[in-house]
UniProtKB/TrEMBL annotation, chain B:
It comes from the Bacteria. The keyword Membrane applies. Keywords: Membrane, Transmembrane, Transmembrane helix. The chain crosses the membrane at residues 16-45, 57-78, 105-128, 140-157, 163-184, 196-216, 256-280, 312-333, 353-374, 386-403, 462-481. PANTHER family: TRICARBOXYLIC TRANSPORT PROTEIN (PTHR35342:SF5). This is DUF112 domain-containing protein. The keyword Transmembrane helix applies. Residues 16-436 form the DUF112 domain. Pfam families: TctA (PF01970).
Amino acid sequence: MTMSDKGLQTKILAAVLIAFSALIFWGTLNLAPSPFEPLGASAFPRFIAVLVAIFSIGLVFMPSEREEPELPVVADPAPELAGPVDDDQVGMRATPVMALATVGCTIVYAIALQARIVSFAISTAIFLLVLMTILTRFNPRAMPLTLVMAVVFGFGLEYVFTSVFVVNLP
Amino acid sequence: MVFLETLGPLFAPMPLFLIFIGTLLGIVVGAIPGLTGSMLIVLTLPLTFTMPPLDALVLLISMYVGAISGGLISATLLRMPGTPASVMTTLDGYPMARSGHAAKALGFGISASVFGGIVSWVVLVALSRPLADFGAQFGPFEKFSLVLMALVLIASVSDGSIIRGLIAGLLGMLVTMIGADPAVGTMRLTFGFSSLEAGLGVVPVLIGLFSVGQVLNEVMAHDRKPAQLFKVHIRDTLLSSAEWARSLPNLIRSSILGTGIGILPGIGANIASAVAYTLARNASKTPEKFGKGSEEGIIASESANNASVGGALIPLIAMGIPASVIDAILLGAMMMQSITPGTLLFVNNPELVAGMMGSYLIAVLLMFVIMVVLSRYIAKLGMVPRSRLMPIIIVFCVAGTYANSNIMFDVWVMLAFGVLGFTLEKCRLPLAPFVIGFILAPLAETNLRAGLMISGGSPIPILSRPISLCFVLVTLGLLAWQVRREFLARKTVKGVAVPT
């Protein structure tokens, strides 16, 4: 990432934060003052929203935010200490697509649970099967284990939650 | 005598069982890179609602102890620090293991962990009550200033610049203001959505930030082939009396340092470990061995990071001020069990306070046994690929969040905060101040508004009351010091070639 990229990112972040502060401030405008105490329900969120906006402007003008040289971004606390990257059988690609896929699968999973289309066990088994398959990059050699894990954990977790921990499931 | 009293409430099968389970799970999670103690504890929160308060807290504290300790195993045997707190251990633990002394490297780490834990337990028992009594003198303005100080301290030591830490903390405060306001119950910031009237629950927000957010980070990372797994014989992990004797000054220094750093809000095990390591190297007669398998390095890192756990429990139990993210989660757990930390807790629920302190000691001792006996097996769990682990964690997140409230809305909140946590980290806005702000904002607002009602609307007592003034001065001093440090760092960097 170049420094200009970083500066642009900071400006975008600041703009989003200022917009969010404005939304919060706007959300407190219709709150009536309290007859019992001096501040009322709106003062604290307004004050904090204003502070967020001020700091966001400060973010753009702070020298460290504008000029600091970019250091290498690392995923692990000490990656140089870890072993070589495992890119074979069950390795995952370092790509935002995996994060997007995880979020997408989880949203579909939650919708299925909310709609009660099938039981928790079946929904979970299907979710695990799909997500594990994606994260193992559709590797056919990883499929048998994926299938077994999906079934075992799908039905096993339902049993553990309902019979051992005795909690309600969607 | 007071030390023994802490163990009294725990001599029953259930608390002892929960301490064992909690410590074991903590160690396992701590030993698996990518899984964190925060993740384990927030996922356990929903399961603790139906438990008696003592059992719930005993379980969570044991997990805390285990999670900080477990990172040592994978750091030493696999060259992969299971937790950030064990990064410094890796520097010497793995080289020592590679040189054929894996069991000894683990032995130094485990023994130092136990020593640090016991030292901080002594300080915990000795200091908590006096500190709670001191805290009892605080009025609303003091409590407000204390929260302010904690927030600024956490923001100033978080990753990145202080301004980003402050923004994160303030965002956390804003999030908790959705729903009924804590003073008079006026609905605010719901934007017409009735689902938001109850506010955003602690459990979905914390599970989202620390579990889903972490999963998204992990699926973005490569799986790594662990290095060679060394064989470990149990008897070799036990230190001889000569080894204990020569390590004693380092153990005492690092444990006291770790406890002291743990007490300060926001600093935590990672920094305690790094500072103790640096001090040990400076004090060593053989500093050249550091980074190449020095037992002193392992001892300093592990005794300090474990001692910081006991230190961090002191302000939590005595005043309800969390010193780290995990402590903030524990505070959330206490709030959900309707437990208010402070001097009244010592008066009204002495068995609960004693149980919390005692469980910490028992967990530390159990941790020693479990790690000596099971390290070589637990290390193998560190080889489980993320691609298998992360989807299962998502299922736990969904089920745990739903079990907490039995409404799907919370699951959506959890997912939203997972994405938010992930995004905040990508924007270099640290999560620690966000969570501390989220947990402490109601306390700050309630006390400020109560104080203003007492003073007839005048904020002057914030500066005219001595203790409150001290907190305000410390807060301003911290801010000034941090801003100056960033400007000085900027000047230094200007003299260095900037990589393109």
